[in-house]
Design a protein that fits this description.
The complex is a heterotrimer of chains A (1004), B (253) and C (153).
Chain A (H helix, E strand, L loop, with lengths): L5 E5 L3 H12 L3 E5 L14 E2 L4 E2 H14 L3 E4 L2 E9 L2 E8 L14 H5 L3 E3 L8 E3 L1 E2 L11 E2 L9 H5 L12 E7 L1 E4 L4 E2 L16 E3 H8 L20 E8 L16 H15 L4 E6 L9 H11 L3 E4 L5 E4 L4 E7 L5 E6 L1 E6 L1 E2 L4 H8 L24 E3 L9 H19 L25 E6 L11 H9 L4 E7 L5 H14 L3 E6 L2 H14 L7 E5 L1 H5 L6 H20 L8 E3 L3 E5 L3 H12 L3 E5 L21 H14 L3 E4 L3 E8 L2 E8 L4 E7 L1 E4 L4 E2 L13 E3 H10 L8 E8 L13 H15 L4 E6 L9 H9 L3 E4 L7 E5 L2 E8 L3 E7 L1 E6 L1 E2 L2 H11 L26 E3 L9 H19 L3 E3 L5 E3 L9 H5 L5 E6 L3 E6 L9 H5 L5 E3 L4 H8 L4
Parallel strand pairs in A: 1-2, 1-13, 2-5, 13-24, 15-22, 16-17, 16-22, 17-18, 25-26, 25-27, 27-28, 30-31, 30-36, 31-32, 36-47, 38-45, 39-40, 39-45, 40-41
Antiparallel strand pairs in A: 3-4, 6-7, 7-12, 8-9, 10-11, 14-23, 19-20, 20-21, 29-48, 33-34, 34-35, 37-46, 42-43, 43-44, 49-52, 50-51
Chain B lengths: L6 E6 L3 H10 L8 E6 L7 H9 L4 E6 L10 H17 L7 E5 L5 H18 L11 H14 L2 H15 L10 H27 L2 E2 H8 L3 H13 L3 E7 L2 E6 L1
Parallel strand pairs in B: 1-2, 1-3, 3-4
Antiparallel strand pairs in B: 5-7, 6-7
Helix pairs in contact in B: 1-4, 2-5, 3-6, 5-7, 6-7, 7-9, 8-9
Chain C lengths: L1 H9 L11 E6 L3 H10 L8 E6 L7 H9 L4 E6 L10 H19 L6 E5 L5 H18 L10
Parallel strand pairs in C: 1-2, 1-3, 3-4
Classes of the chains: A alpha/beta (1004), B alpha/beta (253), C alpha/beta (153).
């Protein structure tokens, strides 16, 4: 069967959107299918995100807008999968597009229909905490901003049709069945949260002040039902004492919940507690948990801050039931402290940290797509490639394959895109469309001829201010050739009108006064471009969202404000010029620094796609950190996997491997790097060009100085123990093995979790028990962090008799060497001081960054490191494998401690991100960027410090001497440099000083 | 002196008013308590008229129209039924539902007119004077009645009641029939919600207040008051004023 | 909706109370979006601000603010993303440093400190945006017109 250069992405949460964007940017046609009526998924519901406390909506909505507007993404909402046939490379999917009863082409998202709807429905987005109309949009910033009628609630009264001035409501709109032909499928349906069933012992559903974490998320949200004030539902008071209960519906073997760990609850709970306290300082959060599983990058620091700065109290106890105090509606919690005393406390509100369940339609999807599910009904994935489902050509990303947080989801989404790239590369660019546009009219130097179009927006503007008056005012402004008003300036017929008007009146600047440029500027820019004007010869005045809607009772003042806003826009328009976007060629070759698993996986992916790849490794041989690992906890054979990779790398003609290699110099920027490498025992020098760089330099194992390591040969590292278990039978004559966790992790020197040590310890404990059932294995731990499905093995280990004993950071075990015996002394809360005799002490040493190497490379690539000397990505949540410096990506342990599977995902993700650059012959740069007037520049270099993107450098100019130079490829146009420049030498195109002064000044 | 109720009658021009005239021509005697307002059709009687009359201390309101099927404007009297049902439901909150009545009198039923009027007057006499008539009106009931008047006039109630007959009688915009039971649940909920919401609004108009105190004042569960306050907030009628201790105070906008 | 329309038309403002004009610089990604959200949520606030959209609060040259005061604006407001939320990573931090100094300088020149205000509002904080505008308007109103400079409005 012939392969198809199109991809279907099922589910448009953050994962689906990311996968769709990566693929669409790499030259594939993407069909993005969403079952609800808007995209964004759960992330759009969140208030803030951990560990940075970033505002979720602020960071996700630009991405969603981009998804909604992308030329190569065909977004369909309210869809249902009907049927899937075909195989990898060529699938045909039947999709039912359920009617919204509102014409999305005509709907302007003004919301009048919702306001007039007499039927109140339950607001699902706000988790039932508020009422809603049957005609609604999911949330105010929804993409696409199209209302939909919920037929479950609608009674068909017809009121909305009457009030809709855009005539968008079409009750006879029918469901539509379409057949879509694609080469690959990515499943990203997300998860559904666990909802405690009726009769649960937490009293959820019965007691008003017991809410789930996702409900609490809406309570925290500034756009939520309580407008960001933390109130309790029973009486609207601010709850001072809030209890958070962890593991509700997770790590539950009673059959009521799920046995696995939901991975994200520990962190989101810490975040909710922090944000609650931040919103209202009187709130004192208490978190009840078994283990604190803060295993991700910078997570532990967040927990420490929560405790120290935000007065969050942690109690190590699992609560199984709650009672209500009927008079006050407070909630009574009884718990046992670690020393065994039973305490009873009353709380004003309780938040249940509910776990992540597989999506409710997981079975349905599995059946339709023919993919297998695992024992918990999540998608079953390949043991080494967490995005590969059981069926070739179908990939899964995000929480559909296991509970995970946003960065892991985004990484997997890109990884899935990376795998699709590998599968369909020869069909890249075959199905995307490109518009043919008329040549641009040259307007530079001509006197401005401005056309102003003012929108009534039905009654949304016209009902609250005097549109004809504003139009008259605009028509009298200097250089305004024509001012007109329209019922809907954004409607298709008005676009034609604007184009005709531009031609008829020879307009060379266009101003539209209507809604917000954030959503509508691209539409109008497209229109004027179609009429032959440069798309930057456009300006918008926001007289709806920021005028008529917020001054609904002040007709005169709103009119006056609208006039001012229009005049300011006209003033700016008079000063705008056409901006040309520069295009630069791309060298379609890649450089990968580091030959561990991440580097090798990335190299192979690139090479499969036909990109010449340079893989450099510092050591003599490839393999990296994983060479010390025999198996994964889940049973994957790592050694076999590595040798297989090495063989494939060595036999691939497109991959050039340099071992014992060091980078002498990296020069250039995105698309155009030039690197010199010194390699081999003879220190040969090789120079080559490439378009992107992937940093996969890995990390190293901590070499302990504590616990007698290196002094007593009975004290060994976990990796040494693994070797002992896998290559000898020495375990058979051992009576007792003690393991100490967190050696060189989670302390002052290394204040982070090394993520894999718990799994490694349990893996080796199980293997030891398997080889010698009589051996006693004791694990001394601080928190057991077997997140996700790894929880199963923790339980198995306990069942097999592995003993787990908790110790505190400030009271570590003490090791006494007495002749041939090792004694381990430990203070415990429950048993007092204990002493264990052992003939082998295994230290779970953490993972630490290769500081010197990383610092050197970071300097060369102009990328940052974090406090722990791991590489710091561009954005912790949404750009986990990118750097702020474009064209440079990160994968594997160089980024932070992680598992082999995660490293593989990151490697594929980095490839997908890189392909968005490599797939093009030339890259077009942003138009609204900075430029330097060299005659004014004194070369002080202050702008260099202000630039977060390393876009500015000092150069020696022939005429002006030492001056700053902005690399237009790297510049994002934020203007931090321009705002600080002491000699006004820097300006930002599209936001020039001249333009802004023209807006400030009252004169025309 | 025995209680002489004040009664207001809304009579449709074509049947009931003519019936009343016929009663006169026929010299049929009935008590003097009713004052008549002529309307073109019983469907014209806006529930607001009735609430307004009751607010002023009228003891009873009688709406009369043509017999079902006989309406001069074809179906106006059916509209009257839906509106009257809602009116009566609202009035149940203050135990006033028996003070209003809808009945049919045709142009030829002079005798019947006398009978039904007499019967209604006697019925009101038995109920006694309206608690909000006279110089010392019951403030609580008066407040509730004000809330009822506003609630009944709200867009939501008008939209529902205005479409009730069409939706139940024929088909809705999708060409489907709406089940009466489902519709009644909706109406009942809307009546209760809007009544309570407008009580909250009126209470806040007097003075800004907290959810807890409003709940005590209005005798509504605080969690429901909170829901109402939040709905009113999204409608732009109410907003947070300040937080006193741990208790937010809401104000009327 | 028609009811509101007619009401608002009737409520033509007749009082001649002095109304300040405040120039607001809003960053595109957070505050401008927050202002849009206030609009979509129909949260009402005083109509005294005029918005200039800039890519980032870091773009705002102190001279823009000075020029606005020179041109007779009664108040200037600058709003960016919350610290740490900047779309351009650190632009708002650069701005924060800059404005701290500017504010001291303006005060030194004898300009009332409340005439120039800096704030943060995220894309999700429509309500907060409205509250801050109410506050700012009140502050500027209390100070009275900006009489130190030639009025060009």
């Amino acid at each position: 069967m012939e392969k198809i250069g199109a991809v279907m992405v099922v589910g448009a949460g953050i994962g689906g959107s990311q996968a769709a964007l990566d693929l669409a940017d790499s030259g594939y046609k993407v069909y993005l299918i969403e079952s609800t009526t808007s995209i964004g998924g759960v992330m759009a519901q969140l208030d803030k995100t951990f560990p940075t406390n970033d505002c979720a909506m602020c960071i996700v909505s630009p991405k969603l807008v981009e998804t909604g507007r992308h030329q190569n993404i065909d977004l369909s909402i309210n869809c249902e999968i009907q049927d899937v046939i075909g195989e990898a490379g060529n699938f045909t999917i039947k999709v039912l597009k359920k009617s919204l009863y509102i014409n999305p082409e005509k709907c302007t998202g003004c919301g009048v229909c919702g306001r007039e709807c007499p039927v109140e429905a339950i607001d699902v987005f706000n988790e039932g905490l508020a009422n809603y109309a049957a005609t609604s949009v999911k949330y105010p910033q929804a993409v696409p901003l199209v209302f939909a009628i919920d037929k479950n609630y609608c009674i068909g009264c017809g009121i909305c049709q009457g009030v809709c001035k855009a005539k968008a409501i079409e009750y006879d709109r029918k469901d539509e069945e379409v057949e879509i032909n694609v080469g690959a499928i990515i499943l990203a349906p997300g998860f559904d949260e666990y909802i405690p069933p009726e009769g649960n012992l937490y009293g959820y559903g019965k007691y008003k002040n017991v809410v789930t974490s996702i409900e609490f998320e809406r309570i925290l949200s500034a756009s939520g039902p309580y407008a960001g004030r933390v109130l309790r539902p029973s009486d609207g008071d601010v709850p001072e004492k809030v209890a958070f209960l962890q593991c509700v519906g997770s790590r539950d073997y009673t059959g009521k919940g799920k046995p696995y760990c939901s991975s994200v609850c520990c962190m989101y709970t810490a975040k909710e507690a922090v944000i609650a306290h931040e919103h209202m300082h009187q709130i004192q959060p208490t978190i009840f948990s078994m283990d604190i599983r803060a295993y991700g990058k910078d997570f532990d620091k967040y927990i420490i801050r929560a405790q120290e700065e935000y007065e969050v109290r942690y109690i190590r106890s699992r609560i199984s039931s709650i009672t209500e105090v009927p008079e006050t509606k407070d909630l009574r919690i009884k718990y046992e402290t670690e020393d065994g005393t039973v305490v009873e406390e009353d709380y004003h509100m309780v938040v249940l940290a509910v776990g992540l369940n597989p999506p409710n339609d997981a079975q349905f999807l599995a059946e339709k797509f023919g993919v297998e599910l695992n024992e918990y009904d999540f998608a079953m994935t390949d043991i080494f490639n967490p995005v590969q489902t059981s069926k070739p050509g179908i990939f899964a990303c995000g929480a559909f394959s296991s509970p995970k947080d946003i960065p892991d989801t985004v990484t997997q989404a890109s990884a899935a895109a990376g795998c699709v790239n590998q599968l369909l590369h020869e069909k890249k660019g075959t199905l995307i469309t490109e518009k043919t546009l008329p040549p641009e009219i040259f307007v530079r130097g001509q006197p401005p001829r401005i056309g102003v179009f003012i929108c009534y927006c039905g009654i949304n503007i016209g009902g609250f201010l005097d549109v004809p008056e504003v139009t008259k005012y605009a028509s009298n402004l200097p250089n305004v050739v024509l001012a007109d008003n329209n019922l809907y300036t954004c409607s298709a017929d008005t676009q034609t009108l604007i184009k005709d008007t531009i031609k008829e009146y020879h307009l060379n600047r266009v101003v539209v006064a209507s809604c917000t440029p954030r959503t509508h500027e691209p539409l109008f820019q497209e229109t004027i471009r179609e009429a032959g004007l440069n798309r930057y010869l456009f300006q918008m005045a926001n007289i709806r969202d920021q005028c008529s809607w917020v001054h609904m009772n002040e007709w005169d003042k709103a009119t006056e404000k609208a006039k001012d806003l229009v005049r300011m826009a006209v003033n700016k328009a008079r000063n705008i010029e056409a901006i040309e976007r520069i295009k630069l060629p791309v060298t379609q070759k890649t450089l990968i620094v580091g030959g561990g698993i991440s580097g090798m996986v990335a190299a192979l992916n690139f090479a499969t796609q036909g990109y010449e790849t340079f893989l450099i490794e510092k050591q003599k041989e490839l393999g990296g950190f994983a060479r010390h690992i025999y198996n994964t906890l889940e049973g994957g054979n790592v050694q076999e996997f590595i040798s297989d990779l090495i063989e494939k790398i060595n036999s691939n003609k497109l991959i050039r491997v340099f071992t014992q290699a060091e980078i002498e110099i990296i020069d250039g920027y995105i698309g155009n790097f030039k690197t010199t490498v010194i390699h081999g025992s003879k220190k040969e020098k090789t120079e080559f060009e490439h378009g992107v760089v992937i940093v996969a330099t890995g990390a190293k194992e901590y070499q302990p100085t504590e616990y007698l390591y290196g002094q007593n040969n009975k004290v060994i590292l976990q990796s040494e123990f693994e070797k002992l278990l896998n290559t000898s039978n020495d375990i058979n004559d051992k009576k007792s093995v003690v393991m100490i966790q967190c050696v060189g992790s989670r302390n002052d020197d290394h204040p982070y979790c090394s993520k894999m040590c718990c799994a490694e310890a349990i893996k080796n404990a199980l293997l030891a028990k398997q080889k010698n059932p009589n051996v006693e294995v004791v694990v001394l731990f601080r928190d057991i962090r077997t997140y996700g499905f790894k929880e199963k093995y923790y339980r198995e280990a306990r069942e097999k008799g592995v003993i787990f004993i908790n110790y505190e950071e400030n009271e570590p075990p003490e090791i006494i060497s007495e002749g041939s015996i090792l004694k381990i002394k430990l203070k415990t809360l429950k048993m007092g001081e204990i002493t264990i005799e052992s003939d082998l002490l295994v230290l779970s040493a953490g993972i630490i960054a290769k500081r010197e190497d990383n610092e050197e490379l970071a300097k060369m690539l102009k990328v940052p490191l974090n406090d722990d000397n791991f590489f710091l990505e561009a954005h912790v949540k949404l750009r986990p494998v990118d750097f702020a410096t474009e064209g440079v990506f990160v994968a594997g342990l160089a980024h932070c401690p992680k598992t082999i599977e995660d490293s593989i995902s990151q490697a594929n993700a980095a490839v997908a991100r890189a392909c968005t650059i490599l797939s093009k012959d030339e890259i077009e740069v942003e138009g609204k960027i900075g430029e330097i007037d060299m005659a004014r520049c004194t070369g002080c270099g202050m702008c260099i410090d202000n630039c977060a993107y390393n876009a500015i450098e000092l150069i020696d100019d022939r005429r002006f001497g030492r001056v700053a130079y902005i690399n237009s490829i790297l510049c994002k146009g934020c203007g931090a440099c321009a705002g600080n420049c002491r000699c006004a030498a820097i300006d930002i195109r599209g936001f020039t000083g001249e333009q802004i002064f023209a807006m400030i000044t009252g004169r025309n | 002196m025995s209680f002489e109720p004040k009664i207001l009658g809304f009579l449709c021009n074509w049947c009931s008013y003519a019936g009343a005239d016929l009663a006169g021509v026929s010299r049929i005697q009935y008590p003097t308590n009713m004052r008549v307002i002529r309307v073109m059709c019983s469907g014209r009687v806006d529930p607001k008229f009735i609430f307004h009359a009751l607010e002023l201390g009228i003891d009873g309101v009688f709406v009369m129209g043509c017999h079902p099927g006989d309406c001069h404007y074809l179906e106006g009297n059916y509209e009257a039924i839906t509106k009257f049902d809602m009116t009566q439901q609202f009035l149940k909150f203050i135990n006033f539902d028996k003070r209003v009545r809808l009945d049919w009198v045709s142009a030829s039923e002079g005798t019947r007119f006398g009978e039904v009027v007499t019967e209604f007057i006697n019925h009101i006499k038995e109920l006694g004077p309206s608690p909000i008539s006279g110089g010392n009106p019951d403030e609580d009931i008066l407040d509730k009645l004000k809330a009822i008047k506003m609630a009944a006039g709200s867009n939501r109630m008008r939209a529902l009641v205005g479409r009730e007959k069409t939706l139940l009688g024929s088909e809705n915009v999708y060409g489907e029939q709406i089940i009466e039971q489902r519709f009644n649940i909706l109406i009942d909920k809307a009546i209760k919600d809007e009544f309570e919401r407008h009580r909250v609004l009126l209470a806040l108009e007097k003075d800004s207040n907290s959810v807890k105190d409003l709940a005590v004042e209005l005798n509504i569960d605080p969690s429901i008051v909170l829901e109402h306050v939040l709905t009113l907030k999204t409608r732009g009628q109410v907003d947070f004023q300040k937080i006193k201790g741990n208790t937010p105070i809401f104000m009327r906008l | 909706m028609n009811e509101i329309t007619s009401e608002s038309k009737q409520m033509k403002n007749t009082d001649d109370e002095w109304e300040p004009k405040i120039l607001a610089f809003l960053c595109n990604w957070c505050s401008y979006a927050g202002a849009d959200l206030a609009g979509v949520s129909r949260i009402q606030y005083p109509p005294n601000i005029r918005v200039v959209r800039v890519p980032c609060s870091g773009r705002i040259n102190p001279y823009f603010i000075v020029k606005a005061l020179l041109d007779g604006w009664d108040g200037v407001l600058v709003s960016g993303c919350h610290p740490g939320d900047c779309h351009y990573l650190t632009g708002n931090l650069v701005a924060r440093r800059r404005f701290g100094i500017l504010k001291d300088l303006l005060e030194f020149f004898g300009i009332e400190p409340d005439r120039v205000n800096f704030m943060w509002a995220s894309a999700a904080e429509g309500e907060r945006f409205a509250v801050l505008i109410r506050k700012t308007t009140k502050l500027v109103k209390k100070m009275g017109p900006n009489k130190k400079f030639e009025k060009k409005w």
